[in-house]
Design brief:
This protein is mainly α. The protein is 53% helix and 6% strand.
Length: 188
């Protein structure tokens, strides 16, 4: 065991060394006094999990785009097509989990403020609106279309199904995605 300063403490969740005055570890664990309100810690944990799910959804979307690029490079590769479909399925599952977590947080009671507790900044309405728009873009991108040849689900903005048939790609879906992308880019 290495030497540790009297100005540091060990996080019980990740075993990381943090400053003794820290209220929260970078891993998300909240240090509180012995009489800390369990409801506040639970609410913090649920919000941290929501943040994790949102980040995981973004990572999944990036992985899907990489798989789609690989499929475009090798259109006849069945393995690439299966990876694209697997990523689409994983994104749908993650989206449902995130929606469930957000619904759970929406009905969670607000925890009473602790004496001497410095509350974290509350997101502004503009930030929440921007995040909502971003979530809608992700949802549209991962929403499946229907292949006109075999009837299987396919990516909404894909041009071919895994069977090789043309995917249903209506102009209004593509226009909605393009509009949402341009709106999210234009806003600061």
């Amino acid at each position: 065991m290495g030497a540790r300063s009297i100005y540091e403490k060990i996080c019980p969740a990740c075993a990381g060394v943090v400053a003794r005055a820290a209220e929260r570890c970078p891993c998300g664990y909240g240090f509180g006094s012995e009489d800390a309100d369990a409801t506040q810690q639970s609410l913090d944990d649920e919000q941290l999990y929501e943040t994790y799910l949102a980040a995981r959804l973004d990572q999944g979307l990036e992985a899907l785009e990489l798989a789609r690029a690989a499929l475009r490079a090798r259109p006849g590769d069945y393995g690439c097509a299966m990876r694209v479909m697997q990523h689409v399925h994983e994104l749908q599952v993650l989206r449902r989990e995130l929606e469930g977590q957000r619904a759970k947080l929406a009905v969670a009671p607000e925890a009473p403020a602790r004496v001497g507790h410095r509350a974290s900044p509350v997101p502004t309405d503009a930030f929440r609106a921007a995040q909502s728009e971003r979530a809608e873009v992700v949802a549209r991108r991962t929403a499946p279309g229907i292949c006109s040849a075999c009837g299987c689900p396919s990516a909404a903005n894909g041009t071919r199904c895994t069977c090789g048939g043309p995917a249903r790609s209506t102009p209004d879906i593509a226009a909605d995605i393009a509009r949402a992308d341009s709106d999210s880019i234009d806003k600061p």
